[in-house]
Amino acid sequence: MEWRERVATEKRAAFADQEYWGRPVPGFGDPAARILIVGLAPAAHGGNRTGRIFTGDRSGDFLFAALHRCGLANQPRSAGRGDGLRLLGAYVAAVNRCAPPGNRPTPRERDNCVPFLAREVSALDRLRVLVCLGSFAWDGALRAVALAGHPVSRPKPRFGHRAEAEAGPYRLLGCFHPSQQNTFTGKLRPEMMERVFRRAMGLAGLHTG
Question: Is this model's pTM higher than 0.85 or not?
Answer without folding.
Answer: yes
